[in-house]
Amino acid sequence: xxxxxxxxxxxxxxxxxxxxxxxxxxxxxxxxxxxxxxxxxxxxxxxxxxxxxxxxxxxxxxxxxxxxxxxxxxxxxxxxxxxxxxxxxxxxxxxxxxxxxxxxxxxxxxxxxxxxxxxxxxxxxxxxxxxxxxxxxxxxxxxxxxxxxxxxxxxxxxxxxxxxxxxxxxxxxxxxxxxxxxxxxxxxxxxxxxxxxxxxxxxxxxxxxxxxxxxxxxxxxxxxxxxxxxxxxxxxxxxxxxxxxxxxxxxxxxxxxxxxxxxxxxxxxxxxxxxxxxxxxxxxxxxxxxxxxxxxxxxxxxxxxxxxxxxxxxxxxxxxxxxxxxxxxxxxxxxxxxxxxxxxxxxxxxxxxxxxxxxxxxxxxxxxxxxxxxxxxxxxxxxxxxxxxxxxx
Length: 393
Prior knowledge:
- With 393 residues, the protein is α+β, with helices and mostly antiparallel strands.
- Helix content is 36%, strand content 27%.
- The protein folds into 3 domains: 82 residues; 188 residues, no CATH class; 89 residues, CATH 2.40.50.
- The longest helix has 26 residues.
- 37% of the residues are buried.
């Protein structure tokens, strides 16, 4: 027996454990066993619905029973049986569906835009993987990518394109929770296993994409890209924004690029608890250049790490007679060999109480400070943060 165009061979490849995960992710509860099947139940439109999941792939009528199950699910969900089967077959994958909307006939895309979309999809995964690996959220990821992030991207793959506009599907395989897919265990070990790295990356990507859309909308309204910097804690990075802009047809090389809208949808493997409801994030065409501008600002604001400055404190301020305070230093950068380079600049530094007290003494005695930290350009001045070393010369 087949199910709505799904072949017997395809039915035979479905694994009971994966199908069970699909059922649980949609609210079905496992019930009692009925010979070689497991009963699943769901309250649906005020009625108690039941389906039977065959649990042994060696059964002679395994494909018939699986066809019955797919047919019942298709009827309840109001979807084609082939669509239900596709979801069951992808249960070991987190899938991102990238729908581009070029002004070409449905199902096609200009070659240049297609190449950019494919590379941008890869870069989008890499940005999310780097954010997941990093100990701290960064405005810009380093050129040299972490090995774990590279291995993750190497393991992802493109699935078949789908009808409508031009849709890329990016498949992220999740590790096997068990060995053979048998369902004779009532509580698969996935319920207690730690979340795999691949799922962490998918979750990071979901949150970061939503944050980038929010930041782009806010920046477009306010004509100010500070929302991108504020969204770094949600996974936004320059790398991520550039990849998103690329999906919209903007790579920064052609300022007159027309671009197009796009959306990203997420489908979650039921092998691990689904972190979010399946959702789609839409990016209208006008947001693509906003994303690119946001990425450029993030790169400009990326701190120069481990910088040493030497200079004279000219202004000190704190809220009370004790505690940390702010100091303005007029100074220059010091290279590793001790040479001072560049022009003098105003640098704002936040100091701890003991450092602030010593800076006060240095100001009174007209002495220089030597401070090491991360230097960031803030409009017309610089800010040194993350102070790791402080001396009075």
